[in-house]
Design a protein that fits this description.
Low-confidence stretches: 244-249
Distance between the termini: 105 Å
Shape: flat
Strand content: over 45%
Strand order of the largest sheet: 3-2-5-6-32-31-30-29
Structural class: mainly beta
Helix content: 10-25%
Number of helices: 3
Mean pLDDT: 88
């Protein structure tokens, strides 16, 4: 009897061991990650999570339950990440090599929101004055209009758009002029402008469509309040965050209204900032809680393998840029890979940004520790940062007595000189600044000087 019990016990243990092995075989897979970067740390996390499952240098091999994981490598001012699907009883291999970061160069010593730029003009809402500024092809700054309570600017192109003040009034932008628009219902809560100039605004739960010059008509009424509009040439997306109404966890929704009259709507939780790809096929939803790319049916077609990100901006219909604290990242939809492409000097956080109309640069509004908001840029087509720029950004702004100088680097290198006192004239201040820069080894032939 005892022998039978022992036999049954042993058989039971063997069965349990087999079942455990079988479960592991049916649910677990192996992931091997290698990198050419010897200094970076490889980290594996569950997709959508932030707690590391395992970390290692240069390479790692780990057994995981089947599912989707984020694999990243960070360190030494470089980084890369990718989502990978681990299949049961399969070996998955991943080579993850971070790209070399691109140099960051200053543009102008002020900053602000909703930047729109091409090779000749740069517009933005000044973060200090809250007015609209225009930096022209001569590196000269202009104030557009006399409204100094702006909270949003949406652009069809640099110098062609609509701005919104804190009272919910809208103004068309045409070059260096502002004209207030007539609204059928006010105030305007949210504003969006498509590249073709179609203009949308919301008031309450109603959405209105017009042009850059007005002529608004109501086109949609939502069943609940919403928190964002995102326009593209074929229509507009309306997004409502969860808990906006009744505190229900399923209260989030999104709807796309096409110019054809078709409406696609879905209960879905989206947060943060939104941006349509240039071809209008994909909508990026980027924020602390969502980091996804959706199609025109509001189906998720890609998940960005980073968390706590912001400021989505498309370079082209396959490449999305976004920010994470003081870094700029690029995500490639075809490969599913993301790479860190630029670090801000001294860890200065990126507040917002946009890609220039020609796709040559990403323009970033950065919070400098000592100077406040500044506009900087990152080259996207291999342009090199000159040694003069690196030298000047370590010097500027400069104060010598009552003479001040600052760098403007949009269409060339310009030194803006000002006399702040009753002493020397601007021309004397220019000589003072030039002599100082020359003594530092700066080639003055590469610079233009202006006097304010």
């Amino acid at each position: 009897m005892i022998k039978k019990l022992v036999s049954f016990f042993i058989i039971g243990i063997l069965v349990v061991i087999f079942l455990i092995w079988l479960q592991g075989y049916l649910t677990n897979g192996n992931l091997t990650v290698t990198s050419t970067d010897s200094y970076g740390t490889i980290t594996v996390t569950k997709s959508g999570g932030s707690t590391p499952i395992k970390q290692a240098k240069k390479s790692m091999s780990i057994k995981l339950r089947k599912g989707t994981y984020n694999v990243s490598i960070t360190g030494n001012s470089v980084g890369a990440s990718q989502s990978v699907a681990v299949k049961a009883h399969h070996n998955t291999s991943l080579q993850l090599n971070p790209p070399q970061p691109i140099g960051v160069e200053p543009v102008v010593g002020v900053g602000g929101a909703d930047i729109s730029a091409n090779s000749q003009d740069l517009y933005f809402i000044n973060g200090t004055s809250r007015g609209l500024n225009h930096l022209d092809s001569n590196n000269q700054m202009h104030t557009v209009g006399d409204v100094s309570t702006l909270i949003s600017a949406q652009w069809a192109a640099p110098g062609r758009g609509v701005v919104q003040d804190d009272n919910g009034n809208l103004y068309s932008v045409s070059g260096d002029s502002l004209n207030r628009l007539s609204l059928p219902v006010s105030p305007a809560n949210y504003l969006a402008v498509a590249p073709n100039g179609d203009t949308y605004y919301s008031s309450g739960t109603k959405v209105f469509k017009g042009t850059l010059s007005g002529s608004f008509k109501q086109v949609y009424t939502a069943k609940q309040s919403f928190t964002s509009l995102a326009a593209f040439n074929d229509g507009v997306a309306v997004i409502g965050s969860p808990a906006a109404d009744n505190g229900k966890s399923d209260a989030g929704f999104a709807a796309i209204m096409f110019n054809t009259g078709k409406v696609v709507s879905k209960k879905i939780s989206l947060y943060g900032s939104f941006a349509w790809s240039p071809n209008g096929k994909h909508l990026a939803s980027v924020g602390n809680l969502t980091y996804e790319i959706l199609d025109q049916n509001l189906n998720v077609v890609a998940s960005i393998p980073n968390s706590s990100i912001a400021n989505p901006m498309w370079v082209d219909s396959n490449t999305l840029l976004y920010t994470s604290k003081d870094t700029l990242w690029s995500y490639n939809m075809s490969s599913g890979k993301a790479g860190l492409i630029a670090n801000m000097p001294l860890g200065d956080p990126i507040l917002n940004g946009s890609v220039g109309q020609t796709g040559d640069y990403a323009y970033l509004n950065v919070s400098d520790q000592s100077r406040g908001q500044l506009i900087k840029r990152v080259a996207l087509k291999g342009q090199q940062v000159s040694k003069e720029i690196y030298e000047l950004q370590s010097i500027m702004p400069e104060n010598i007595g009552e003479c001040t100088a600052d760098l403007v680097n949009f269409t060339g290198l310009t030194i803006r000189v000002r006399d702040l006192g009753e002493g020397p004239s601007n021309s004397s201040c220019q000589s003072v600044i030039q002599n100082d820069l020359s003594s530092r080894g700066i080639d003055l032939k590469t610079l233009n000087f202006t006097q304010d």
